[in-house]
């Protein structure tokens, strides 16, 4: 192999190395940026430009991609942070932050690590806010804490090219002793509400029961009043009918005395009547009846046997000394008077009917 051959080989090797170098330089100069990303380019160590989505060309060995920034909204969950409330209780708070890079240059050059910066800023701000609240306010004021956190973080991270969209507190964990106390308090509150509801139910039940009994008593009283009124009206009508019947029949004192004697046995009826008194009108009624049947002076004697009537009258008069005997005698005489009245009615052409007089 001569010198010419060696030189040719060296030339081909140099050409190959040059071609490889050119291909490599071209490959490094062509940059494709994906959607929702931004590349920061430095030229000779200084910031040159920000490349957005698309195809870009770099100057080989002069331009360099310093950082790739994701422009999408990011969710970062911080580990639990111990925070002391105003009443000196330690609570652990888990928080979540939703933020987005709006200025890639500021996010890279204004802070070394913007994620760490957001985390530390969230922790300090959260401690400042919760430190002014007691435990009860901390547990019940999540929206207020979220709003204050978002306002402080958005203002502080604005120079970093970051926009904080939302801050959420995932959990607020008080100490175990406080948890037990809260559970007992909640149980007592539920028991109190249950007792109040039970008492209200019993109260309403008693009120409704009393109202029902009141309405029932009112309706019963009204019914009894109406019944008594109707009964009184019926008795009044019966009395008026009897009174009218007596006046229409032109009853004399003899007939009334006879009816009076018929009612005397009804007075003595009943098991509780141990003693009764004969009214003073009893003698007058007997005399009127005796006069009606010819025992005393009468314009028309009702009996054909004057001796029998006198004997009967004497028996009645002598029986007045004993009231019980007089009652028995009155019962016997009432039956006899009815027979005599029928006989007298047959003579006058108008039969006498005591039951008909009673019905009227």
TrEMBL record:
The lineage of its organism: Bacteria, Bacillati, Actinomycetota, Actinomycetes, Micrococcales. It comes from the Bacteria. It holds the Pfam family Band_7. CDD domains: SPFH_paraslipin. SUPFAM superfamilies: Band 7/SPFH domain. The chain crosses the membrane at residues 6-33. This is Uncharacterized protein Rv1488. Residues 325-334, 350-360 have a biased composition (Basic and acidic residues). Keywords: Membrane, Transmembrane, Transmembrane helix. It is found in: Membrane. Belongs to the band 7/mec-2 family. Residues 296-360 are annotated as: Disordered.
């Amino acid at each position: 192999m001569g010198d010419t051959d060696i030189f040719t080989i060296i030339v081909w090797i140099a050409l190959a190395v040059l071609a490889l170098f050119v291909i490599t330089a071209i490959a490094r100069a062509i940059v494709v940026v994906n959607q929702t990303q931004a590349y920061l380019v430095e030229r000779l160590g200084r910031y040159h430009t920000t490349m957005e989505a698309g195809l870009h060309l770099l100057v080989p060995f002069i331009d360099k991609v310093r950082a790739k920034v994701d422009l999408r909204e990011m969710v970062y969950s911080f580990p639990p942070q111990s925070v002391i409330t105003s009443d000196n209780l330690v609570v652990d708070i888990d928080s979540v932050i939703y933020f987005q890079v709006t200025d890639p240059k500021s996010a890279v050059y204004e802070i070394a690590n913007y994620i760490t910066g957001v985390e530390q800023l969230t922790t300090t701000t959260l401690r400042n806010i919760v430190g002014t609240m007691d435990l009860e306010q901390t547990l019940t004021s999540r929206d207020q804490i979220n709003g204050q956190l978002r306002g402080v973080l958005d203002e502080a991270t604005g120079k970093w090219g970051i926009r904080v969209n939302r801050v959420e507190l995932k959990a607020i964990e008080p100490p175990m002793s406080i948890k037990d106390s809260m559970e007992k308090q909640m149980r007592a509150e539920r028991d109190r509400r249950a007792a109040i509801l039970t008492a209200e139910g019993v109260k309403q039940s008693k009120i409704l029961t009393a109202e029902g009994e009141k309405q029932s008593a009112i309706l019963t009283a009204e019914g009894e009043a109406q019944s008594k009124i109707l009964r009184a009206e019926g008795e009044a009508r019966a009395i008026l009918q009897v009174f009218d019947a007596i006046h229409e029949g032109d009853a004399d004192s003899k007939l009334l005395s006879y009816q009076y004697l018929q009612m005397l046995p009804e007075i003595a009826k009943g098991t509780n009547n141990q003693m009764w008194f004969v009214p003073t009108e009893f003698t007058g009624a007997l005399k009127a009846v005796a006069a009606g049947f010819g025992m005393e002076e009468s314009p028309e004697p009702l009996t054909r046997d004057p001796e029998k009537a006198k004997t009967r009258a004497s028996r009645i008069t002598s029986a007045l000394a004993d009231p019980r005997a007089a009652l028995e005698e009155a019962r016997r005489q009432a039956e006899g008077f009815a027979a005599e009245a029928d006989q007298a009615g047959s003579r006058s052409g108008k039969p006498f009917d005591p039951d008909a007089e009673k019905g009227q």
